[in-house]
Amino acid sequence: MKRIFKVSFLALATMFALQSCGGKTTEKTEETTTTEETVAVDETISNDITIESNDAMQYSTNELRAKAGEITVTLKHTGKMEKTVMGHNFVVFKMGTDINAYGAKAADAKDTDYIPASEAASVIAHTKLIGGGESDTITFSITEPGTYDYICSFPGHLALMKGKLIVE
Ligand SMILES: [Cu+2]
Fold it and tell me: In this structure, are residues 9 and 34 in contact, taking their beta carbons and an 8 Å threshold?
């Protein structure tokens, strides 16, 4: 909406410049550019986050934002498939973790729902593995601002199901 308004205004200003004073068109355009910079960008920051997952092996977003402190994440599975076939979880890591190496270890950890005990030191928090129609909520604390990776550790899902949690 804001973008459409901005473009219309720009067009109007240019037309006015052309009609009234042909020689000063460049000056008028510069003025319009200054106005454009005042348009605010909306960014959603919430420490009560809901992220969805589906039968197409996707999260609803690959970027989450929160403020340092307690963060609550609810993972919902909006699909219909069982967790043995299309299970999803949400695993968030300490900075510097190699998520591909973690994913490889996770694939061998079927007995613990693909959360390998050997890699626990890299994990800040994780939900349980859920199937279609289920959800799980976790609360954890991140005090250091930064960018934290999250993935679904079900075998093969890391290719599509990964994102960044940006803590400010
Ligand atoms: Cu998954």
Answer: no
